[in-house]
Amino acid sequence: MRDWIKKWFHNISFRLFLVCFVFVLSSEAILSGLSYRYIKNEITSSQLNQATQLLHKEEEYIDLYFLLVQNTIGQLSTSAASWRNDLTAAQAALENAYRENAIMLTDVYVIRKDLSILGGNPVTKVINDSRDDRDPIYKMAYSNAYGAVTVSQPYQNFFSGWTVTFTKAITIAGEPMAVAVDLNLTAMQERLQKVGGGSNDLQLGIMDKEGRVILEPAGSRLFSIVDHRLRFDDRDGRELVESKDDVFTDHMNGTAVTIMKSINPRTKWIVFAFYDGTTLQTSLKRMETFFIGLLLLGFLLSVLTAGFVARMIRTPVYYLIRKINQVGHGDLNVNISSARRDEFGKLAATFDDMLGQIRTLIEHVNRGERKKKELEIQVLQSQINPHFLYNTLGSISNVVAFGRYHEVDNIIEALISILEYGITEFSDRVNLEQELRNVKDYLYIQQIRYDCEFELIEEVDPVTLELPVLRMALQPIVENSIFHGYAGGRKPGAIRLSAVRRDGNLIVEVEDQGIGMTPDKTTELLLEDPVGRNFDHRKRIGLYNIHQRIRLNYGEPYGLSVWSEPGRGTCVTLTFPDDTAQNQLEERGRGEAQ
Questions:
Q1: Which span out of 202-211, 374-383, 527-536 was modeled with the highest average pLDDT?
Q2: Is the pLDDT of residue 533 over 50?
Q3: Using an 8 Å Cβ cutoff, are 185 and 164 in contact?
Q4: Least confident interval from 518-522, 545-549, 557-561
Q5: Residues 14-53: pLDDT tens digits?
Q6: Which of 4, 342, 513, 582 is most exposed by smallest CB count within 10 Å?
């Protein structure tokens, strides 16, 4: 089973399908997720804006209550002079004020100095005896030197229950008294529920600065009321009052709640709006069902798209690989031409041209010894070319597998440039500048294939760029630096390439900073039949072939020399004759002879 999985995973079509599938599906998932988040944020923002508006309405409603009570007390204070010290007239005025505002007020009464009252409520009109619990209200009325209306803290009133009292000092019949009004908090709470619109996830409430509940949020699942205080998670509502933020998020009994608050400037009450997002969560669940369906549709589209893209790239690549395998088995009569007009078609046409050049060279070799020598050189060169063709196709596979489709054209152009460089015309000698350009194309392909940086450091004397060297002499050495010096392309590293004219010769050095090798292995590199059979066969053939080509073309004094040290790298030196210097010496000799 594992071998079958490995076989499929190393298959370019499967990897390409997998990459396309993941890319399309993840893109669709990301877009769906962003859309879901955007809609969620918009709904949440809308709900919070609504909560803010309701909070402002609640403040306005409190102001209306305050003005109502203030006007009632003001009217009683103003009409006190008309009572002419007649307590019966005062009683009638209180009853009238109560009747007009009975829906919003629990009682309207006057507290006398002995703490008995004149009440407007039918109950307090009868039960008007002195009570000590009225003393704080009476004293509060006279605590304000300016005679303004004073608001009490919420407290438990014997007649009105849990209430808030508004009071003001007045004088009737020469006796200092306090006119007081008890709010009907139950009616006020019902009005605020209507202001809130009956929303399940938005509750409105009012507390004083000590955290005592004046108006309890109705029907809330977030907290309980104990001794007129909010309780949640073993905490007290005073924490909410003391919070420095006007809008903040807290957790109440495991539910995240957005809390908005403001302080009423008239009463100093803290007005709250609690939003737990119950309606939002219900809407989001419906949206989740929709987006799950959307993801399933995206899954199907991902499969179809990935299959189409994989087939579009896989077909021409597999076609080229089959044809190259036939060439690798010795069939030089293969025709790779394709009707495609894209980069793959151009690659196939260039490869056909290369095979035609190879067949032509073979025919020329049969005509004589020189042709035999050219055949030997061509065979040596052909031993270098096939594996970089395979590597390039592997690079295309990797680029496609990782979804970097925009790089496919560049790789194919680099490969075409390398192939054209080898087949444009059969000439062993090119100038150094052309050879350097070919090395750069080769390095670009390898960097893409191994996803690793191989820095090319050029230390080339400009006068050497036009000097002749052997075609394809530098690329195999650079290849050895990557495969053997830098762990088969798994490690990045620099490759230094230098060229100078010295003592009538052109000296070219290719140096890496890789793992290096022992002197014994260095000696074996240039031997035709080294003793170390287990040493890398491709490396021996590559350097030996270059060494032999240089000696066949220029003679015994020229060729390769190799220096290496374990852990410090390897330096391969190529020595070519400097034809320009030799021509100058010959002309100088002829001039002296004349």
A1: 202-211
A2: no
A3: yes
A4: 545-549
A5: 666 677 777 777 777 787 777 777 777 777 777 778 778 7
A6: 4
DSSP letter string, 349-394 = HHHHHHHHHHHHHHHHHTT-HHHHHHHHHHHHHHTTHHHHHHHHHH
How far is Cα of residue 307 from the mean position of the Cα atoms in its chain? 27
Look at the block and give the residue holding tokens 């995973």: 9
| Residues 574, 590: Cα–Cα separation, whole Å | 30
Q: Hey, what are 180's tokens?
A: 């007081």
Report the alpha-carbon distance of residue 432 to residue 438 in Å, rounded: 10
Beta bridge partners, 369, equal none
**Residue 568 CA to its chain's centroid (Å):** 41
CB distance 69 to 105 below 8 Å: yes
The per-residue DSSP string of 206-240 comes to: EE-TT-BEEEPPTT-SS-EEETTEEEETTEETHHH
Q: Sorting pLDDT into bands at 50, 70 and 90, what band is 235? A: confident
CB neighbourhood size of 135 (10 A):
12
Task: Name the nearest CA neighbour of 584 among 460, 507, 501.
Answer: 501
Rg (CA), the chain: 49
What pLDDT was estimated at residue 5? Answer: 60
Position 375: which residue type? Answer: L
Contact 264, 62 (CB under 8 A): yes
CA 410-414-419 angle, 5° bins: 145
Confidence tier at 267 by pLDDT (50, 70, 90): confident
The token pair at 58 is: 């609640």
Question: What average pLDDT is seen over the chain?
Answer: 78
Residues in the chain: 594
**Is the confidence at residue 205, as pLDDT, over 60?**
yes
CB 211 within 8 A of CB 272: no
Q: Give the bridge partners for 179, in sequence order.
A: 110, 168
HSE (side-chain half, CA atoms, 13 Å) at 347: 22
Burial of 264 (0-12, 13-18, 19+ CB in 10 A): middle
Helix (H) or strand (E) holding 109: strand 105-111
Percent of the chain with pLDDT over 70: 81
Which positions ≥6 away from 70 have C-beta within 8 Å? Answer: 149, 166
Terminal Cα distance for the chain, rounded: 86
Mean predicted confidence (pLDDT) in 542-550? 80
Long-range (24+ apart) CB contacts under 8 A made by 370-374 are: 373/552, 374/426
The percent of the chain in helix, strand and coil, each rounded to the nearest 5, is 55, 20, 25
Q: For residues 216 and 230, give the distance between their C-alpha atoms in angstroms, rounded to a whole number.
A: 8
Closest-CA residue to 19 (of 305, 372, 261): 305
The answer to whether 163 and 153 are in contact (CB under 8 A) is: no
pLDDT at position 531:
44
